[in-house]
């Protein structure tokens, strides 16, 4: 399907301690007409005490509204000094460790297909469009089966390689529609903020399991995971499957609802 960006993004820089501010001349504005060749993963490093993080979340929302959630896959990773640890907040031991792995020291920050390193949220639109133009290095199909009584997820992931390389497969669980606290850009405290695409856990290794990619070859991977946290709502959850190369750049990413009846 041909996609067209008809939105202009406008942001107001505000100076708040430990949160990133960006000059007006760094905004991306403009219509772009193209056929996407690969999906884009935005890893949004965020925190519930970060006043500018809702602005980053809005950029993600606008990108998904414009280009489709099937093409723009976001994961909100809570960690660092502006996060609130679970169970009161959304930062888990895994998400905190992943934040440290990427050496995030101020928020919000993001990775767009892990190409070019950490970047400001006002650059995500331009980076996303650039990544749409790149060839995908793999196709991914994710087939989940969820036993509601046991809260057990059985997952089959089919990877069809388009390149020959050493790579890694990452399988993450994210959850939408989580109502909780968030510091806001105007200095207020919103206790009913709706957090989306929140990283909950890794089904396999957080940094991925090693896989070998051979062009034209299809491989299947089987995993099981039990949702131990009763607060996690399966109807709001999805699997994010990422195939990356040895340098961590994303070759392809897809998101699949945990339950087939999810809208």
Automatic annotation (TrEMBL):
Gene3D superfamilies: Glutaredoxin, Immunoglobulins. InterPro entries: Ig-like_fold, Omp28, Thioredoxin-like_sf. NCBIfam families: lipoprot_Omp28. This is 28 kDa outer membrane protein. It comes from gut metagenome.
């Amino acid at each position: 399907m041909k996609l067209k960006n008809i939105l202009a993004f406008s942001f107001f820089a505000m100076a708040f301690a430990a949160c990133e501010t960006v000059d007006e001349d760094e905004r991306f504005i403009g219509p772009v007409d193209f056929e996407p060749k690969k999906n884009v993963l935005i890893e949004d490093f965020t925190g519930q005490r970060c006043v500018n993080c809702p602005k980053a979340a809005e950029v993600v929302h606008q990108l998904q509204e414009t280009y489709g959630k099937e093409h723009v896959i976001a994961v909100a990773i809570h960690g660092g000094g502006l996060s609130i640890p679970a169970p009161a907040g959304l930062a888990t031991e895994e998400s905190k460790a992943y934040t440290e792995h990427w050496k995030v020291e101020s928020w919000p920050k993001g990775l767009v297909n892990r190409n070019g390193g950490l970047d400001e949220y006002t650059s995500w639109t331009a980076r996303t469009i650039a990544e749409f133009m790149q060839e995908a290095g793999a196709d991914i199909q994710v087939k989940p089966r969820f036993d509601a009584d046991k809260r057990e997820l059985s997952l089959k992931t089919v990877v069809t390689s388009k390149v020959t390389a050493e790579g890694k497969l990452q399988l993450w669980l994210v959850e939408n529609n989580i109502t909780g606290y968030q510091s806001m850009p105007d200095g207020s405290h919103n206790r009913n903020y709706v957090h989306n695409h929140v990283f909950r856990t890794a089904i396999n290794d957080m940094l991925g399991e090693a896989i070998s990619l051979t062009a034209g070859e299809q491989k299947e991977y089987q995993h099981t995971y039990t949702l131990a946290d009763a607060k996690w709502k399966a109807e709001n959850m999805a699997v994010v499957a990422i195939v990356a190369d040895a340098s961590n750049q994303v070759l392809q990413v897809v998101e699949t609802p945990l339950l087939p009846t999810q809208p």
